[in-house]
Design a protein that fits this description.
The protein contains six helices and three strands, in the order H-E-E-H-H-H-H-E-H. By secondary structure, the chain is of the alpha+beta class. The longest helix is centred in the first third of the chain and has 17 residues, at about 1-20.
Length: about 150
């Protein structure tokens, strides 16, 4: 799953670079049963995409998934929306955006250890299921090395 996630983020970064933009992202993998049918292995990805390039990424992401998996796209496999539900919220209502941003980040981090949750004040904890390989990652520009510099 980590290889597919890496390929997806690589395709996204290259598409944004072709339009003169950078990006940053973080992802987590889960393999946990949900309410009803088992969700199976899946990825939560938070990515910065400039508002004017959201239509570009939206138009391309299903094709990326087909290219990565070799399978036709299935409805509702990709669930993508801006933090807070609408583009531009970060400038139109920064306080509301901050609350929604924190909620999105807390959701993605719900599989954290109890120690990490205590350290970062995370209240929602759920088992992330068995993952073979890497459970989480970030783009290099916000990774551990970048934070040390």
């Amino acid at each position: 799953m980590a290889k597919a996630t890496g390929r997806f983020t690589d395709l996204m970064a290259k598409a944004l670079a072709r339009h003169g933009s950078g990006t940053a992202w973080l992802w987590t993998h889960e393999n946990a049963p949900g309410n009803g049918p088992d969700k199976g292995g899946h990825c939560h990805l938070l990515a910065h995409v400039p508002a004017d390039l959201v239509p570009v990424v939206t138009a391309l992401q299903r094709g990326w998934l087909r290219r990565i998996t070799g399978q036709p796209y299935r409805a509702r496999v990709i669930h993508s929306k801006p933090i807070g539900g609408r583009l531009g919220l970060e400038t139109a209502n920064p306080d509301l955006h901050a609350v929604n941003h924190a909620a999105a980040l807390a959701y993605v981090l719900k599989g954290a250890s109890a120690e990490a949750a205590s350290h970062f004040g995370l209240e929602r904890l759920e088992p992330g299921g068995r993952i073979i390989g890497k459970r989480c990652g970030t783009s290099q520009n916000i990774g551990a090395k970048a934070r040390k510099d």
